[in-house]
Amino acid sequence: MNEATKRELKPKLRFPEFRSAPEWKTRRLGDLLLNHPDYGVNAPAVPYSENLPTYLRITDISDDGHFLSDKKTSVNIDITDGNYLSEGDIVLARTGSVGKSYKYRKEDGKLVFAGFLIRIKPDHSEVNSTFLFNFFYTRQYWNWVAITSARSSQPGINANEYAMLPIPTPPHNEDRDDLLEQQTIADCLSSIDALIAAQTQKLDMLKSHKKGLMQQLFPSLEEARG
């Protein structure tokens, strides 16, 4: 491990209860996982069917990491339990929209991930999966993606390269599996995400209400001609 990976870090903003705690350190992503990052299935998408597994492709992931369920597709090959995503799993795009990420949620239904995605399974004794997922939306991460993906003639990041990604992590008490600072950060950011989702829903309702009002407030030329 080089000096850049070992160096200690101090965030600009820290919750009061952790200000006297030791500084953060960078760790390789691979050291925070249950196993090595793995690839999805290599198979074409087929029209969606309730009798087939739902397929997760790069294009099914929104820019803010949500599953786009309005245009679902399926995959028609023999599937094993290991091909399905589990709670806490995160997938990362290895080509195309390189670096794009999605964290699996049970409410999205059973999903099989495609071959242009790489799955990581966080070790929950080492890292909080929501804390880790939020890191994939930081400037540091996207700077790393830009540099790493540009090193080859075909832009992309493979599983071995993702495993080397440096992750800044707060210290934790290994004797107690204490990830309290990670959990506190994850809870804070999740509460903001919930507020954003609620406000977005309200905004969509207002837009729909305005559209309905406009249709009633302005006379219809077609009806007048009739």
UniProtKB/TrEMBL annotation:
SUPFAM superfamilies: DNA methylase specificity domain
GO molecular function: DNA binding
Biological processes annotated in GO: DNA restriction-modification system
Any Pfam family the entry gives: Methylase_S
UniProt keywords, alphabetically: DNA-binding, Restriction system
Ranges of residues in domain Type I restriction modification DNA specificity: 54-206
Transmembrane parts of this sequence: none
Family annotation (InterPro entries): Restrct_endonuc_typeI_TRD, Restrct_endonuc_typeI_TRD_sf, Type-I_RS_S_subunit
Protein family per UniProt: Belongs to the type-I restriction system S methylase family.
Entry protein name: Type I restriction-modification system subunit S
Source organism per UniProt: Candidatus Desulfovibrio kirbyi
Organism taxonomic ancestry: Bacteria, Pseudomonadati, Thermodesulfobacteriota, Desulfovibrionia, Desulfovibrionales
Originating gene: hsdS
